[in-house]
Specification:
It is a single chain. Helix content is about 50%, strand content about 20%. It has about 700 residues and is α+β, with helices and mostly antiparallel strands. The longest helix has about 60 residues, at about 25-85. The protein is flat and about 120 Å long.
Length: about 700
């Protein structure tokens, strides 16, 4: 019986078994087994909903923490600049005109500063940048903050003030004392714009529907991520009680339009009692849990009903099932030998027999194809070849090794397993011989009383595997070379930039020491200190630039989509290349290695566009679908022939940018596909697999 006939019979019998199984009592047992699966499924759905709700709250807490750190850092930075301004030599005499110009210059570099005012010891304004110098500056807006500075002689960050008589706006006051000769001479204040603080909330990357709020120590609204009303609104009782009780946590309240919300909050360090709040609609959090409870109750009721209906069908005759299984076992046994006969062909292996006594190799048609040997006279699809003719096609560097391995296998009685190259059509290709000594009949004796040496086995084409190994080794070499190049670049940058600046700093300190030794004037010493401060700032910028080149901070702080948006904005500002970034289905962070690989791939793609494409617009779309991330990068440039970069072509340089993208993606199992044509732009399709539920660690 042929394997095709046996397979047909097996399929027919399998169909009959399925029909009998549907009618048999086994169906009742299978259905009964679904009861715990239903219970488990609905319980899992309920637990998943609870975990999802907790995950949203954790994400909100992380977002609040990020915003709190950014706002606190911004306030600390502004207070540091304000304290430095209070030390201005222009306030020693004082020289108000000189101080007025210096304050204007600094204000232009501080986005948060709306105005700078100087309050005299009597409590009246001496100058205000919103009024020309010499013109009456008007009354003071935030008297409470100024009085606190005068009382404590320490920096104070106030809350949201009243409408300023000069600015006509409600600003946040930050004031520091100006002391000379251990006496309070002035109070220096800066008015911070709530709109700039609102920008920090908007850029926090919170999901749609979340409402962020920053309030002062009295609970008055300073900034809100949604512009739905003026600042200065008083807080509700829940917010006031929560902040008064704990510095951070959760509370439930109602929004301005009466919607119940769950709010996560945190008090900001170093801001005099400010706090940041993010409100999430309670209905959006509780809806999955309510749905899961309904499913849980329904699943339990369905399980009870199913168990009652199936109880009367369990325990019936199992004999029919055993007879059916016996029939299938007989069919499987009948087809096993036929399937074994085609196993070698399915594996694309060739069989061979090497008679060392007669010096001939015979084999199957597949062997002849793999070794390009001549056919036998009796069978055109088989191989018959002298061993000398066979060794002639073996690569010269492998002939001795092959002959030695064959002799060792015969003399020791061990298996033969050797890889070697054959030269076919001028190209060396890898083959693998697997075999062992054939057990001879007792009548097969040679003149010495021994038996003829005969090996038999199979031959396999391992050229694809060898090419893959070579490509792997080349990838490792290039990665190692890239690492060495990056280390050399960092060393060169530190030597050329930071090293030179440190040398200047050392010389400046030496000059300062000499000036102090010879009793130089105060103005000269101050000039030296200012120059040294500029060198320190330059060192900080160089180190920050080197650190950003190694690992973009935006990727860790904002996530992949926002980091790419920031990169696109930077390229638009620096090179005039309009980059549009969109993210779909990316409400949660991706694994860190995936984010890094995709960010670097997009960075390399933009570099290629800038170098070669002559494009004006680039569209970058990221979409997560289940356990896969798809990225599409499309430009409107000049395009090219994709075949030019698919494989290295002799005489033409390979596109190293696209090769680098492929190598980066291969580290996370990703793939790259290119669509382009001259004059039609270029589109890169990136596909990266994700572990189920894979978020950033």
């Amino acid at each position: 019986m042929s394997i095709a006939t046996l397979a047909t019979a097996e399929r027919s019998e399998s169909t009959s078994l399925v029909q009998r199984t549907v009618r048999s009592p086994l169906m009742s047992l299978l259905l009964a087994a679904t009861i715990p699966m239903i219970v488990f499924g609905v319980a899992t759905a309920y637990l998943a909903a609870i975990q999802t709700r907790a995950g949203v709250q954790r994400a909100a807490a992380v977002t609040v923490s990020h915003v709190a750190e950014r706002v606190s850092g911004a306030v600390r930075e502004e207070m540091a600049v304000l304290r430095a301004l209070a030390l201005s030599p222009a306030l020693d005499e004082p020289h108000l005109a000189q101080f007025y110009d210096e304050a204007q210059r600094i204000t232009r570099t501080r986005p948060l500063w709306e105005t700078v005012s100087l309050i005299g010891s009597g409590g009246g304004q001496v100058l205000n940048l919103l009024r020309p110098l010499g013109e009456a500056p008007g009354p003071v807006a935030d008297i409470a903050t100024i009085e606190a500075v005068r009382r404590d002689q320490a920096p104070v960050i106030g809350g949201l003030g009243s409408v300023g008589p000069i600015s006509g706006r409600r600003l946040v006051s930050a004031c520091v004392p100006v002391e000379r000769d251990h006496a309070l001479r002035f109070v220096l204040c800066v008015g911070i714009s709530p709109e700039e603080i609102q920008t920090i909330l908007v850029q926090a990357g919170a999901p749609a529907g979340w409402i962020g709020t920053i309030v002062d120590r009295d609970g008055r609204l300073i900034a809100r991520s949604v512009s739905d009303g003026p600042v200065g609104r008083p807080p509700d009782a829940a917010m006031r009680d929560a902040v008064a009780g704990e510095p951070q946590g959760f509370y439930r309240s109602h929004s301005q339009d009466g919607v119940e919300v769950d709010t996560v909050y945190q008090t900001l360090a170093g801001t005099g009692g400010w706090s940041v709040h993010f409100a999430i609609p309670t209905d959006a959090l509780d809806r999955p849990v309510v749905r899961s409870v309904i499913l849980l109750v329904g699943g339990l009721l369905a399980s009870v009903a199913l168990a009652a209906g199936l109880a009367i069908r369990t325990g019936r005759d199992i004999g029919q099932r055993r007879r059916d299984e016996q029939i299938r076992a007989d069919l499987a046994l009948a087809t096993s030998e036929a399937r074994a006969a085609v196993a070698i062909a399915a594996a694309e292996l060739g069989t061979w027999r090497w008679d060392r006594g007669s010096g001939w190799i015979t084999g199957s048609r597949r062997t002849r194809d793999l070794l390009s040997g001549p056919a036998t006279a009796a069978a055109s699809d088989a191989l018959a070849w002298s061993d000398q003719a066979f060794l002639a096609v073996v690569a010269p560097q492998d002939r001795t090794r092959l002959a030695t391995a064959v002799q060792a296998s015969l003399s020791r009685g061990t298996s033969l397993d050797i890889e070697f190259r054959v030269v076919l059509g001028g190209r060396a290709q890898w083959r693998r011989f697997l075999g062992r000594e054939e057990q001879p009949a007792r009548t097969e004796r040679d003149g010495t009383g021994g038996h003829e040496a005969v090996l038999h086995g199979v031959v396999a084409d391992i050229e694809p595997r060898k090419r893959a190994e070579a490509a792997h080794y080349e990838l490792l070499r290039r990665l190692s070379q890239a690492q060495e190049d990056e280390q050399r670049r960092i060393a060169r940058e530190l030597h050329d930039q930071v090293g030179q600046t440190l040398t200047g700093l050392s010389l400046g300190l030496k000059s300062l020491e000499e000036g102090l030794s010879r009793g130089a004037g105060a103005e000269e010493i101050r000039e030296q200190v200012r120059w040294l401060q500029s060198l320190v700032s330059e060192i900080g910028r160089d180190i920050h630039r080197a650190a950003s080149a190694l690992r973009p901070s935006a990727l860790d702080d904002l996530g992949l989509v926002n980091a790419l948006s920031a990169l696109g904005a930077e390229w638009n500002a620096r090179y005039g290349l309009c980059v549009d970034v969109q993210g779909l289905g990316l409400s949660e962070r991706l694994p860190r290695d995936v984010e890094t690989a995709v960010f670097r791939a997009a960075q390399e793609a933009l570099t290629n566009v800038l170098k070669h494409a002559r494009a004006r617009h680039v569209s970058l779309v990221l979409e997560r679908r289940g356990d896969r991330l798809s990225v599409v990068i499309e430009d409107d440039g000049c395009g090219f022939e994709p075949e030019e970069c698919s494989e290295p072509v002799e005489g033409k340089p390979r596109r190293l940018g696209l090769s680098s993208i492929r190598e980066r993606l291969s580290l996370v199992g990703g793939t790259l596909r290119i669509e382009s044509a001259p004059g039609s732009g270029t589109t890169l399709f990136i596909n990266v697999p994700l572990a189920p539920g894979g978020e950033a660690p």
